[in-house]
Amino acid sequence: MTAPRAIRVRHWRRFARCRGLASAVRDPFFDPTAEAEAVAICQPCPVAAECLAYAVSTGQVYGVWGGRPQQEVRRLIAHDRQGRRARTNGAPIRHHNARKTQCKHGHPFDVRNTYYTPDGRRRCRTCLRQAKRAWRVRCARRGRAAS
Ligand code: SF4
Ligand SMILES: [Zn+2]
């Protein structure tokens, strides 16, 4: 049975074909001499698109992801970082800010100001800091009001 798409996207690792295949002594996904073997394992994987989207959006520059060799994953990451739509043959570019150069408040999506959530979404560090500051102020006010 195929899991619903929303479940697959969020919990793609659960459905990974490579699950349990790698060990401390042998991992074809991170062994350049076994790249073809890893790519072959990925071919029928039901979550290859989600795996590749994760690797691209979180900048996984080592290993085979989504059935693509390391060099290709790197090329897709480079495209993504330039804010261009990466050509992933239908794999979703999951973070909605992938093509933007700034967050909605105008802060740049550059290396220093960008972080990725575990599900691969791109976020603005400046906005996060401001939100935390505002939250602390609200908490302090509430604390004063309560005392
Ligand atoms: S595409 Fe390959 S590396 Fe990704 S989850 Fe599937 S088997 Fe594992
Ligand atoms: Zn911002």
Can you characterise this structure?
- It is a single chain.
- This protein is mainly alpha-helical and 147 residues long.
- It has helices at residues 5-10, 35-42, 48-57, 70-81, 125-146, and strands at residues 114-116, 122-124.
- A two-stranded antiparallel sheet has the order 1-2.
- Helix 3 crosses helix 4.
- The radius of gyration is 19 Å and the shape is elongated.
- The structure holds iron/sulfur cluster and zinc ion.
Indicate the topology.
Elements (H helix, E strand, L loop, with lengths): L4 H6 L24 H8 L5 H10 L12 H12 L32 E3 L5 E3 H22 L1
Antiparallel strand pairs: 1-2
Bound molecules: iron/sulfur cluster and zinc ion.
Iron/sulfur cluster binds next to helix 2 and helix 3.
Q: What fraction strand?
A: under 5%
On the 0 to 100 scale, the average pLDDT is 80
Q: What's the number of domains? A: 2
The end-to-end span amounts to 57 Å
Number of helices: 5
Main β-sheet, in a few words?
2 strands, antiparallel
Query: What is the general shape?
Result: elongated
| Radius of gyration computed on alpha carbons | 19 Å
Helix content: 25-40%
- Helix-strand pattern, N to C? HHHHEEH
From the structure above, extract its key features:
147 residues; mainly alpha; 2 domains; two-stranded antiparallel sheet; binds iron/sulfur cluster
Can you describe this structure in just a few lines?
39% of the residues lie in helices and 4% in strands. The protein is mainly α and 147 residues long.
